[in-house]
Design goal:
The chain has 20 helices and nine strands. It is of the alpha/beta class. It has a five-stranded parallel beta sheet with strand order 6-7-8-5-9, with helices on both faces. Strands 1-2-3-4 form a four-stranded mixed beta sheet. Helix 9 links the parallel strand 7 and strand 8. The radius of gyration is 27 Å and the shape is globular.
Length: 466
């Protein structure tokens, strides 16, 4: 490891701490753009750049191109910026928004003109605005996302596609937006001169309402329906918006009927989109529905290895990579944030990265990622393993083929959950706590003598904890 930074002076962001600071800044910028909307973000926060960082106090400068913009961002987004940095990279304890050194301080007479110039610029909603980091080359593929990644590459190419639309769904932080931007990059590279329109469902709604008020629905329809590739992110946001859904349905039909390509993302599967018209759900299901599941251990391990390649000077032993991949399981986004935090603390302190160091730096993250296993999950997993109906867990049947799995489930409930013995008994058909005690002791005794049962319980434990 390299030594720590000097704490006596302001260190430029381009020094040893640069990589984790810049990685965190990119993550924060992405979050702000989603939260504030593209229009506000592009007008006020997109011009912001990293300034100096003071290790001693944890103060970080965010530089704006003018004094007026610095004052405005500090006033309107200062607290949000500080909170974002403390969450993503806690070594940053204070954010100071300032004008760049060569930015002139405007006189009061020029402020009105500055306001006009600083207003968020009007953008053609069809203009691609893809994140340069989000390409197929930087998307790590594993079992959890293989179908979605393969379909995305196919749709971004020049050949015939046997499905349309492509509907990608998955929980927060799993890579849906990454794939959406990668499709945009890939399609434009493979199809020069073709027209791509990309927007969130929320922006679709805002633009449509604005067009209605301006009596310009024809212009709105034309911008979208003439696209060779239409990308819509977070379609769940149109739930309950009847007029927006009507326009969305006709836009989908027009794109698909014309043989153009459509990609839609959501945080859930079509059948789980409450408040969305059945005919839209039916149309979505006509194409390919590809889910991105939670990353498994192997994918998380490979993601860490890939990200380490972008953090020069950070040496992380394999056992630490293994530890991180096993313990930070909530999302890929949180895994990347944890890695940035470790790198920053290591560079700041000059300490070697080992498991003890990671446990210290990520104490809160590791606590939040502790698997909270429910009795219902245990009953489901055990019933599937022993090929019995889940209802047998609460039935009165005493046949050995159901009694033994029930005892195993009670044993695992005692081992893997904080529930009391009476609570466990109630979840198994209202049984007394003494029945649970007997089951636990019975399984403990049998495990010592029956290697097959011991292997079953080890496997079930790994499945439930993984």
């Amino acid at each position: 490891m390299h030594g720590g930074l000097s704490s006596s002076t302001l260190e430029p962001a381009g020094a040893a701490i640069a990589a984790p600071l810049e990685a965190a800044w990119e993550s924060i910028r992405g979050g702000l753009r989603r939260d504030l909307g593209a229009r506000t973000f592009d007008g006020w926060l997109k011009p912001a750049v990293l300034g100096a960082f003071e290790p001693d106090t944890g103060a970080l400068e965010i530089l704006m191109p003018s004094q007026f913009m610095a004052d405005w961002v500090r006033s309107h987004f200062g607290e949000r910026l500080t909170l974002a940095w403390k969450t993503v990279l806690p070594i940053v304890r204070e954010v100071r928004v300032a004008a760049a050194a060569d930015a002139p301080r405007p006189s009061p007479l020029l402020i009105l003109e500055e306001v006009v110039e600083a207003r968020p610029p009007e953008r053609d909603p069809s203009a691609p605005n893809f994140d340069p980091r989000y390409r197929f080359e930087t998307f790590i593929v594993g079992k959890a996302n293989e179908v979605a990644a393969t379909a995305a590459r196919t749709l971004a190419g020049t050949g015939a596609v046997g499905f349309n639309p492509l509907f990608i769904h998955g929980g927060t932080g799993r890579g849906k937006t990454h794939l959406l931007h990668a499709i945009g990059h890939g399609f434009l590279a493979a199809n020069p001169g073709k027209r791509v329109v990309s927007m969130s469902a929320e922006k679709f709604m805002v633009e449509f309402i604005r067009a209605l008020k301006a009596n310009d629905t024809i212009g709105f329809k034309g911008r979208l329906r003439n696209a060779d590739l239409l990308l819509i992110d977070d379609v769940q946001f149109i739930a309950g918006k009847d007029s927006t859904q009507e326009e969305f349905f006709h836009t989908m039909n027009e794109i698909i009927t014309a043989g153009r390509r459509l990609v839609i993302t959501s945080d859930r599967a079509p059948q789980d989109l409450d408040g969305v018209a059945p005919r839209i759900l039916s149309r979505l299901s006509w194409g390919l529905v590809a889910d991105i599941n939670a990353a498994d251990f192997e994918l998380r391990f490979n993601i860490i290895q890939a990200k380490l390649g972008a953090l020069p000077g950070v040496e992380m032993p394999r056992n630490v990579v293994d530890f991180l991949a096993r313990r930070v399981t909530s999302s890929v986004r949180e895994l990347e944030g944890a890695l940035n935090r470790i790198a920053a603390y290591a560079m700041m302190t000059g300490r070697a990265i080992d498991v003890a160091f990671v446990e210290e730096v990520l104490a809160n993250v590791l606590r939040a990622n502790q698997r909270r296993i429910s009795i219902d999950e245990i009953q489901t997993q055990v019933a599937e393993h022993y090929r019995i109906r889940k209802a047998e867990m609460t039935s009165a049947r005493r046949a050995r083929e159901v009694a033994r799995p029930r005892q195993v489930a009670m044993y695992l409930s005692k081992q893997l959950t904080p529930k009391s013995l009476p609570d466990i008994g109630r979840r198994f058909g209202g049984r007394d706590h003494t029945t649970v005690i007997h089951a636990v002791k019975q399984i403990e005794r049998l495990r010592a003598a029956d290697a097959e049962l011991d292997a079953d319980i080890r496997l079930l434990t790994r499945q439930l904890e993984g």
